[in-house]
Amino acid sequence: MISLRTLIKLVIACLIVGAMLSFIGADPLDFWRGLWSALRDAVQRVFDEGLSGALRILNLIALGAVIVLPLWGLREVLRRRRPPAAPGPHDRSPDQPRDPSPR
Question: Which residues contact 39 (CB under 8 A, 6 or more apart)?
Answer without folding.
Answer: 60
